[in-house]
Amino acid sequence: MKNTKENTDLNMGRAKNDRWKKILGIILNIALLLLIDGLLVYTFINEENRIYKGTIIKILLIVTGNILFLVLLFWGEKICSAIKNTTFLRIADVILLLVTPGIVFMLVQMVTWVSGYKNKAVSTFKGLVKMSLLMEQPYLRLNLIIYAIFFIILIILFRKINIASSALCYLFIILAMVNYYVMEFRGEPFQLLDIVGMGTAAEVVGEYSFKIKLMLGIPLIYALVFGEFVLKFQKLELGKKSRKNTAARFGVLAVIVITLCFTIRPILQKLDAVTLWQINRIYKEQGYISSLVKEIRYFYIEQPEGYSVGKTVELAQEIEDGENIVSETDKSESEESVDNTAADTSETVTPKNIILIMNESLTDFENVGEIKSNVEILPYIRSLNKNVKHGQLHVPTFGAGTARSEYEALTGNSMSFLPSGSVPYQLYVRDPEYGLADILKSQGYYTIAMHPNKAHNWNRASVYPCMGFDEFISLENWGEEHRELLRNYVSDKATFEKIISLYEEKDADEKLFTFCVTMQNHGGYTVEDRAGFEPTVKLGYDTEYPLAETYLSLARESDSAFKELLEYFEKVDEPTMIVMFGDHWPKIEEEFMAKLLGGNRQSLGLVESQQSYTTPYVIWTNYPSETVEEDFSANYLGSYMLQLAGLEMPGYNQFLMNLKEQLPIIGVGAVCDKDGNWYANDALPDDYKKLMTDYNILEYNNQFEKKDVIESLFTIGN
């Protein structure tokens, strides 16, 4: 009797727990459905707001999906019980098991097609389904195999097929949504290497608006329907629950994981490499998941063709002998140039203060195309015509990825030889990290890095000491002064006042190098993000562009603040060089940018798209210097500053200055020579291919060589 009572109590306890689990599950599912529906309604009211045939069809599909989901949630178990143990259900279980990877693949591809640039082919639901499935057979098979592998792993992990099926669906839909929102926030797709930047991304994610368009709502709602359907109707299990079963499953899982770890690299090397330029198009046409898996290969930095320590030493000797770079046809011209350079160097003024400013999202859209605005955007910067070098700087990133442009400017290394989407600050920086700060420090400059935001952003707190900065001033130790906010960020005006205060606090005989990363113009630019800031720039287009108006107004504030900074140092007796450049374009309305570019950025060709990787740069001195207008890429900026300042340069920087004469622009997926001719990286003439290979070899030794770094190439005094 006692055992019977205990068993009864135990069963009642289990039933109670099951009931609470069921209630909790219903609450969570309803909350998720309401979240998606709420965002759909919010987006429709605020953005689309038009009713036509296509819109009605989308709404009907979403409403139908809601009804199906609620029916499955509340009555799915009863329906399943009614057909329990029937032949139909057993056959359906097997069919459902086999088709699950394919269904998840289709749902993920539907989300992927909605992400990014607009395409008329996916403007209707029928077109969306068609384009999601319209894929070349080899890519289709590869994607299905990858989904099947993940499905098998989840089955082994969870034992119950319904849980594994639901988990497969939700996990990959979430991954597809990551790509969607990354595209929305920065205009560039998610790449696997972005994972290491998630910490910094999480810091700013709240500054953007999460919206769900109707077309996106369809695969999301039906992903919920499918997930709930398999939970209720899929009854297959991988054996009975027992300790022996668990041990066997996890043993097999361990074997699979270990096998994949040892075989993934050679397998990936046999597959076609994914092209990282316009990667979002590759996600659509070749499959999101297979393309992501292929990106794993970019976590490995391969030695460049022909690399060896001996080859690096050989190149170092050529640089020292002045033989590197110059071709036979250019020798006479180069020798004349060297003579002129020597003559100019004798009159070069070496600045006592060097200020380098990387201005967040600063872009000269007026250089791209005509802007219909009530005022000029960068009137002061565009008016500078005395003691100034200026032009367009080609940067390696768009819409975000600030630290990539920063890395090129400070080290001289090019992102062209590193995986697209990677952030060296978080993956590759070593101690010491040779570059501009180290070179200036070795020549007597006190080196300060400053950034009016959190020190750990892009791992700067760890990176800057390795680079040779004596001090790092971040928001945490900024002080109470010079904290004026524009929206939610320290303004450029306040930041530049901080630069002035650092100059005023230094000793009279001290040489100072200040590197500053601003924050004022950081995205988002929505009305909600303005925090009381009223745009002064008004655009005169038929369509309203509130994001563009906010951004352009902020850029105009930067221009004004820069004017005040230069006006202060005009009166300073100590020779001072001030350099400012933008890190990347802002992420604003695609339609506005398309008007300037002459077409949607995602649809532009390799050469035409390069303009969207340009930002303005200014190199100004408060002493007489030649005024020059030229365009070049960010990897040359630090070396160019050293050359203009008449300072000693290591061999690597000398190499870069020689390379700049031949290939002034190393762009994204392409290079431009001194005559203005563009070449795709995989179609370089032999001469240029050799130059880029030499550059790659030197950069590899600098950044990745484990034992025999030729330090004398990269630093002064070794």
UniProtKB/TrEMBL annotation:
Top-rank taxon, per record: Bacteria
Transmembrane segment boundaries: 23-45, 51-75, 87-108, 139-158, 165-183, 214-234, 246-268
Keyword Membrane among record annotations: yes
Residues annotated as domain Sulfatase N-terminal: 352-646
Pathway(s) where this gene product acts: Cell wall biogenesis; lipoteichoic acid biosynthesis
Signal peptide range in chain numbering: none
One Pfam family this sequence matches: Sulfatase
Membrane topology value: Multi-pass membrane protein
Location of the protein in the cell: Cell membrane
Chief location category: membrane
Protein name per UniProt: LTA synthase family protein
UniProt keyword annotations, A-Z: Cell membrane, Membrane, Transmembrane, Transmembrane helix
Span list, region Disordered: 324-344
